């Protein structure tokens, strides 16, 4: 299964192969992200979920295969065309990636100031609207160092959507957040997706939160797509890989132990 | 023995590689310079951050260096009964050699390390990737203003260094050691030639400004995104600049002396 049935794709990956330092990350990945929906890409840590986002945005080049965003091939695209494409994409980094020498207001205004000639009053209006939508209008003049992890991510989200993109990519948006912040981010992703008619892609391993917000989810493991479906469908999946991941089993096809030699032998040998 | 040669060869290869990469990076920065100058507000802000904030350390160091030069110079010149040439000696030493060299080394210690660690941390905290994702080129937005600010700041700071150094020399020579102020200034005025002496210092400080700024931004931009990577980049920014400045100083001096 590489495509949710009956959905127009916004992103399409075909036969993707990528390796890093000689270690294959993706062997033959093909998947489709439907337009206007919230799609999650899940999988255990180290399976290349973030790498997949970086491939989609042209930060990394695959060894083989095709990546199309909105029908446009990303691999081998020129720098200017890539930048034009990125102006239509919002990206929320795991920790917000706010510019530490600018305050919250200027961080959100940054893409507008760089890419448009809008007058200050209009920039002010846009920035305040986005900050209001993430509940941080009152924090406009705080510096990033004064924000909590959850607040930084909300500012990152306001910045990601300030240029009114068609597609927003979320890299581990729930990682390291307290339950309240997590709930806020879940609600914001859903609301922003619906209000702005976006396509949203969430890379995460937080099953509960993803289940609340995603219309569709792909599970990656061992360099391949091992399952795809709605979160409810995935919970009922019988495959051992999917069962281990969705039901949080500590051992299974993804072993608890990192590959190592014989245990007693290791205990006997004292390193000099 | 074989291992030693192998290590030496490896170090040489690494040096040539780094030099090549830095030259390519400099080429890119020079190519971007006209566009960066169009957004002079960003350069101005950095000029204030790294240039103006280096003034204090440059100023204090300059006064002390000038004082030491006057002290040492006075005792040497006194043996030949030529203490009225103290002003010439202090001015020549500062304008031609110590001003540009020490300014560049102090600038690398004060501003170069801060630039390298700032840019390295921006890389480590995904700020540069964030810009890339917002379709903003970090070389144009982050590196160029800092590089140009450094290139502009070093010659200005070197001029201030030399001026304050001469003032320090005056305080010790005339104020403490009793050298006559008339010959101190008049001999300096007659001996220091703008076209040769001052311009030699100016050319040197421009070359050192480019070197110190290039090394700092290059090391920061290419720092591995780890604590150790940023720390190494910061150290390399000062070490490489100090060695490069001394080597380039020898080269420029040799060319100028050769011409003279």
UniProtKB/TrEMBL annotation, chain A:
Any Pfam family: ABC_tran
Record protein name field: ABC transporter ATP-binding protein
Source species of the chain: Natronospira elongata
InterPro entries, sorted: AAA+_ATPase, ABC_transporter-like_ATP-bd, ABC_transporter-like_CS, P-loop_NTPase
Gene Ontology molecular function terms on file: ATP binding; ATP hydrolysis activity
SMART domains: AAA (SM00382)
Keyword terms, alphabetized: ATP-binding, Nucleotide-binding, Transport
Keyword Transport: yes
Domain ABC transporter: 11-247
Lineage: Bacteria, Pseudomonadati, Pseudomonadota, Gammaproteobacteria, Natronospirales
Automatic annotation (TrEMBL), chain B:
Keywords, alphabetical: Cell inner membrane, Cell membrane, Membrane, Transmembrane, Transmembrane helix, Transport
Primary role: Part of the ABC transporter complex MlaFEDB, which is involved in a phospholipid transport pathway that maintains lipid asymmetry in the outer membrane by retrograde trafficking of phospholipids from the outer membrane to the inner membrane. Probably responsible for the translocation of the substrate across the membrane.
Membrane-protein topology: Multi-pass membrane protein
Transmembrane portions of the chain: 55-74, 86-108, 147-178, 198-218, 238-257
Record family assignment: Belongs to the MlaE permease family.
Subcellular location: Cell inner membrane
InterPro entries on file: ABC_MlaE_roteobac, MlaE_Permease, Permease_MalE
Gene Ontology MF terms: phospholipid transporter activity
Chain segments annotated as coiled-coil in the UniProt record: none
Organism: Natronospira elongata
GO CC field: ATP-binding cassette (ABC) transporter complex
Protein name (database record): Intermembrane phospholipid transport system permease protein MlaE
Oligomer and partners: The complex is composed of two ATP-binding proteins (MlaF), two transmembrane proteins (MlaE), two cytoplasmic solute-binding proteins (MlaB) and six periplasmic solute-binding proteins (MlaD).
């Amino acid at each position: 299964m590489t495509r949710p049935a009956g959905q127009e794709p916004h992103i399409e990956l075909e036969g993707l192969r990528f390796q890093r330092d000689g270690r294959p990350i993706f062997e033959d990945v093909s998947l489709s992200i439907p337009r206007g929906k919230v799609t999650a890409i899940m999988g255990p840590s180290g399976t290349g979920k973030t790498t997949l986002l970086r491939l989609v945005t042209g930060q990394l080049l695959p060894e083989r295969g095709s990546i199309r965003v909105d029908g446009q091939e990303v691999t081998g695209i020129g720098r200017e065309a890539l930048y034009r494409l990125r102006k239509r994409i919002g990206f929320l980094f795991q920790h917000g990636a706010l510019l530490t020498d600018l305050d919250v207001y200027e961080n959100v205004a940054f893409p507008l100031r760089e890419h448009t000639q809008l007058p200050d009053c209009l920039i002010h209006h846009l920035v305040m609207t986005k900050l209001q939508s993430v509940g941080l209008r009152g924090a406009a003049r705080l510096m990033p160092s004064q924000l909590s992890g959850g607040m930084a991510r909300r500012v990152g989200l306001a910045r990601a959507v300030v240029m009114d993109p068609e597609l927003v990519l979320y890299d581990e948006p729930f990682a390291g957040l307290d339950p309240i912040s997590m709930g806020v981010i879940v609600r914001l992703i859903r609301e922003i997706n619906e209000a702005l008619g976006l396509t949203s892609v969430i890379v995460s391993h937080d099953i509960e939160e993803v289940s609340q917000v995603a219309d569709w989810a792909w599970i990656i493991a061992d360099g391949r797509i091992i399952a795809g479906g709605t979160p409810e469908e995935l919970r009922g999946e019988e495959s051992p890989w999917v069962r281990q991941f969705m039901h949080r089993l500590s051992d299974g096809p993804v072993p608890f132990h990192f590959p190592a030699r014989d245990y007693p032998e290791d205990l006997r040998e004292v390193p000099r | 023995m074989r291992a030693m040669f192998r290590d030496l060869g490896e170090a040489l290869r690494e040096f040539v590689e780094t030099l090549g990469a830095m030259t390519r990076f400099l080429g890119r920065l020079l190519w971007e310079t006209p566009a960066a100058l169009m957004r002079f507000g960003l350069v101005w802000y950095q000029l204030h951050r790294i240039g103006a904030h280096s003034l204090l350390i440059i100023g204090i160091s300059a006064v002390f260096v000038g004082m030491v030069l006057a002290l040492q110079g006075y005792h040497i010149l006194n043996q030949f009964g030529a203490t009225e040439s103290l002003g010439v000696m202090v001015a020549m030493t500062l304008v031609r050699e110590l001003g540009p060299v020490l300014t560049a080394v102090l600038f690398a210690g004060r501003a170069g390390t801060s630039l390298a660690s700032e840019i390295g941390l921006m890389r480590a905290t995904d700020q540069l990737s964030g810009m890339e994702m917002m379709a903003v080129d970090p070389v144009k937005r982050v590196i160029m203003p800092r590089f140009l600010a450094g290139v502009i700041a070093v010659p200005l700071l070197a001029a201030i260094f030399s001026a304050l150094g001469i003032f320090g020399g005056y305080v010790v020579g005339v104020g403490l050691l009793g050298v006559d102020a008339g010959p101190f200034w008049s001999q300096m005025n007659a001996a220091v030639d703008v076209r040769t002496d001052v311009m030699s210092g100016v050319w040197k400080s421009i070359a050192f400004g480019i070197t110190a700024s290039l090394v700092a931004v290059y090391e920061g931009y290419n720092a591995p995104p780890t604590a150790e990577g940023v720390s190494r980049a910061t150290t390399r920014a000062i070490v490489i600049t100090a060695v490069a400045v001394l080597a380039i100083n020898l080269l420029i001096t040799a060319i100028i002396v050769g011409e003279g």
